[in-house]
Amino acid sequence: MAEKQEKKQKQIGIVSNYFEHVKAAAIKLIDNLKAGETIRIVGGEIDFEQEVGEMQIQHEKINSAKSGDEIGLKIKERVRKGYKVFRV
Could you report the per-residue pLDDT of 10-59, keeping only the tens digit for each? Predict the structure, then answer.
């Protein structure tokens, strides 16, 4: 059933790094993303949704990002490189 859900949701990025000390992930986007949207992160034992709060590119706060950007985002659970990011 989880596979069906993944097909309905559009993948918008992939986790490229995780920073434990600040609980933030670097996410390489393959689609646009705006603050306020809900994302789902899936990988390993992890599968959770959260609203996109403050995003950053090179420590600059942004409200939206486009495909090809690599953003920093506070994440509520520990994630790993390679986890998939979907728009809900």
Answer: 999 999 999 999 999 999 999 999 999 999 999 999 999 999 999 999 99
Q: Which neighbouring-strand residues pair with 80? A: none
Token pair belonging to 88: 């809900």
Identify each DSSP E strand in the chain by its residue range: 10-19, 24-29, 33-34, 38-43, 46-51, 55-57, 60-62, 64-65, 70-74, 84-87
- 2-87 under CATH 3.20.20.210, yes or no: no
DSSP assigned state of 53: -
Residues in contact with 43: Cβ distance below 8 Å, sequence separation at least 6, in sequence order: 15, 79, 80, 82, 83, 84
Tokens of 1: 């059933």
Q: Token pair of 30, please?
A: 């393959």
